[in-house]
Amino acid sequence: MKRFRLICITALVVGTAAVAAAQFQRGVPFGTRLATARDFDGRFNFCRLVYQGNGRGGRWTTDYPNADINMSIRFSELTKTRISFTPSGQPKHLLVGPTDETLFQCPLVVMTAPGSALFDDEEAAALRTFLAKGGFLWADDFWGTDQWEQWESQLRKVLPAADHPIVDVPMDHPMLRAQFVVTEIPQIPNIGYFRRSGGDTSEQGSDSAVPRARIIADSHDRVMVLMTHNTDISDSWEREGEDASYFYAFSPRGYALGINVFLYALTH
User: Which of 97, 150, 232, 237 has CA 20 to 30 A from 21's CA?
Assistant: First the structure.
């Protein structure tokens, strides 16, 4: 009997340790639920990248979870894409880490506040493989020179500059015309800054005055990485129901760009 009890206790400890080890990854607070293979049912999931950061300029949780939820709902309403929903009717949005096998179940992964990101060699290699196999990474909501340089330093661990130049998105690019005709990259501030500033849009003054959308494409001109800099597109999804003036100023344009990007990523 004692031996049986010891075996049960040992199994419990080992099992608990395994769960804890799975949860304890770089940048993942204990208790955060990362996606598993069972979460994927053949329909579209909004996948968010969980990453380790330096704490300057935001975290992976920026705009989470309402941006993920609201964009999933609008994507289901405004396109014919089949979206994965839970039995309770909520969109099944998912969290994935750079080295998770589940990353490869996501054709598109969104990361916010990339100007604070830190990738180690294993994470960089995994992301490189993900992109080479057809994955699409959208890095959104980072501002000014310092955050751009921090992001670029980490991105270059994934995709070296010699083989993967960064270019501005031409306004006639198919990604900007997948469903809606986008004629400019909107500068969308976070709602807090918008309110405090009395309607200004450049969160870091002259250092973030011009919003830019840049890309890295593969040898077949398929976009692998989209970077929306000096703008917070996902805040226009997250905050759509909080302030009518903010919604009308930014959400229609934010959703138009977002839906175009999602459709492009799913079809290229």
Answer: 150
